[in-house]
Amino acid sequence: MIIVKVGDEERAECGVCEAFRTVSYQLRDVPFDDGSGVVKNVIAGVCKTCDSVAVIPFQSVPAIKKQLQIQRKAVESRVPAHMIDLLNMASAELGATPDFVPLLLKYYIHHLASSPEAAMRVVTMLTSELATGMANKRLSLKGREIGNDIERLKNLSHIDNTTELLKGVVLTIHNDLLVNPDAQRIALLKSFVATVA
Question: 54 with 14: CB under 8 angstroms?
Fold first, then answer.
């Protein structure tokens, strides 16, 4: 592996100039392509013609991965054991394994956070007897948008406690997929399962 130093130069393809240009390795703040964040102060090859980042050396990859991990905010909670069983049963109903549960939860949280009417369903579900029980199982979700989606859903549903919110989401999933099956949603989720399985 070649290690570059600040000030080193070489020729590389510049995506902005759409041509091979001389790049100079400098310390730069490099934004992610999707605009979701910035990796600060890493060595990057900067085009001497247009001053844009043209290349990232391999040695800067660990710093970029670290920043991505920081952005993947983890949401941790403890819920009653039967809630995990409900999620596993819902996943099985879709033809998926328990590995699909985090994706199913993230889909539902995002969907429910998209409208006040949908969010209020979560509140209704918390009146169920299934919403009670000793919280003895860990539920963990990771993703760049999960924190934002949960905050939006909290605001719409007026549920401040993350654990209570997640219990309401689990019971909404249980209702839609097992108690009062929503054929349209089930078909959509089955096609989603087919693409990620």
Answer: yes
Q: How far is it, in rounded angstroms, from Cα 126 to Cα 114?
A: 19
Roughly what angle, to the nearest 10 degrees, separates helices 116-125 and 101-112?
120
**Domains of the chain and CATH, by start:** 9-71 (3.10.20.860), 73-196 (no CATH)
3-state secondary structure of 23: strand
**Cβ–Cβ < 8 Å for 165, 128:** no
Rounded to an integer, what distance in angstroms lies between the CA atom of residue 120 and that of residue 102? Answer: 22
State CA 177 to chain mean position distance. 23
Q: Report H helices in the chain.
A: 61-71, 81-93, 101-112, 116-125, 146-157, 162-174, 183-196
Query: What's the CA gap between 138 and 126, in Å, rounded?
Result: 19
pLDDT tens track for 112-133: 999 899 899 999 999 999 999 9
- Whether the model clears a pTM of 0.70, i.e. scores above it, the answer is no
